[in-house]
Design brief:
The protein is of the alpha+beta class. 35% of the residues lie in helices and 22% in strands.
């Protein structure tokens, strides 16, 4: 993929040299989600480093791609996507893209960088024959929801959560 330049911001494929900076941005993404909703997962100890290691291991994977946004040598955003398939034994197979993570530094938001990162990933999905892609967005992330809706995103399923004890108390049958 050729480099895309947006107001001196370069969008390019991630390299192993980018892994630690991407890991640090991933940790900021996790912290952002935690601030929105304490029920969302927290990063493991050394989570940023582990994320960087996993990313480095998958850089040569033909089914995974990461792109970064760079401003004068400093990474200010990234997107990670992959080609996935449904359980092949029970669903008709069709290549599907999955956008796993996207992050843009708060100082760089609302400048079109997120859109350019998504565009780079979409181009890659198209090259691999994926006619659509899926992603997750936190239900309390109003900015994220607005971003995805502006790009044509629509809800397909709603992921829900309940505490086991709370549900157990609610479904207990009365003694007869």
């Amino acid at each position: 993929m050729a480099r895309i330049i947006v107001d001196e911001i370069v969008i390019r494929a991630a390299t192993a040299a980018d892994a630690d900076a991407i890991g640090a941005m991933w940790l900021e993404l996790v912290d952002y989600h935690q601030a929105l909703d304490h029920d969302l997962p927290i990063a493991a100890t050394n989570g940023a480093r582990l994320y960087a290691q996993l990313l480095t291991q998958r850089l040569d994977d033909p089914y995974t791609r990461a792109f970064v946004a760079e401003d004068q040598g400093r990474l200010v955003g990234f997107v990670l996507g992959m080609i996935v398939d449904l359980v092949p034994d029970v669903f008709a197979q069709e290549p599907c893209g999955f956008l796993a993570d996207i992050y843009v530094d708060a100082d760089y938001r609302r400048r079109g960088i997120g859109r350019k990162l998504v565009k780079a990933l979409l181009d890659w999905f198209k090259e691999r024959g994926a006619p659509y892609f899926d992603w997750h967005v936190a239900s309390l992330n109003t900015e994220g929801l607005a971003f995805w809706r502006a790009l044509g995103g629509r809800e397909m399923m709603v992921r829900m959560r309940a505490d086991v004890e709370d549900v157990d108390d609610r479904i207990a049958l009365p003694d007869r």
